[in-house]
Fold:
Amino acid sequence: MLIFRGETMEDGSPSQTALMVAVLRAHHCHFAPEPKILQDTTALPLSGMTDLDAVKDYKNGVIEFFSGLSSRAVAESFVQQITDSVCMRSRLVEERLTEARSQGLEQLVILGAGLDSTAYRCAAKLDGVPVFEIDHPATQQWKKTRLTECNIDLPNNLQFVGFDFENQTLAEALASGGVRSDVVTMFTWLGVQMYLTPATVQATLAVLGKFPSGSQLIMDFAMPDATHPDEELKDPVGELNRVVSEMGEPFESTYTEQQLEDCLKSAGFTDVSFYKAGRILDSFLEGNRDICSVPDEACFLLVATV
Structure:
């Protein structure tokens, strides 16, 4: 059973939201019908769940935790949309990686890596490309231990870069970790923006915007005016914030598309392309609406290019 209230994270363990996202990816991988949005066989071992029954129980617990919704049916629909959104953002990264490799990608930097599985899930696609996972050192140690326990080999091109945000700037962490600032780089920044203050978001973008022309950032974001197709759910972002706040990780910022585009361009990015769910379905999933519960008009992802 999923228990969040009153829970204190042990030092070094992943955040509750990182664990939740990994479990939802695992549930999709093992229980969603074919064709799937994302194939992520590493999600289950990374999640820390003992087996697939535990994954089922956890997702049911997430649904129960959305008890503030009008009915269980609405809660189930909302959690399914969260699951599909999480898988869509990782699928976008996979597809952009394929394109970037053909255009001379020289390194991949995964910011706030948490339980991200890109380096392992896409190991063949990333062969020969340096990959850097940026996160708190204690969290990284938990992840490495988990990978070892599950017999998942660390790719030779993967480097863990510890980032102590209290005593380092991001630029210092990247430099000390061996990230080159003079080569074309892809950054992924998933499931992070909403937990940071606007000042921290802008400071991060300012660092990334200084990388060479052709570098790109893939990120998701929380909009203040997001909508849900079920009329019973008036404020989906507010409802999600209620739940993550009870998990000890409240939202610190939301952005409209225009606000975020302005932030990116002021940081040095020249092109910002927003991805609505329908665009991803049409571009990468053969337009199949049956495999995804996210409305076509939902926008929560972008690609920005320096």
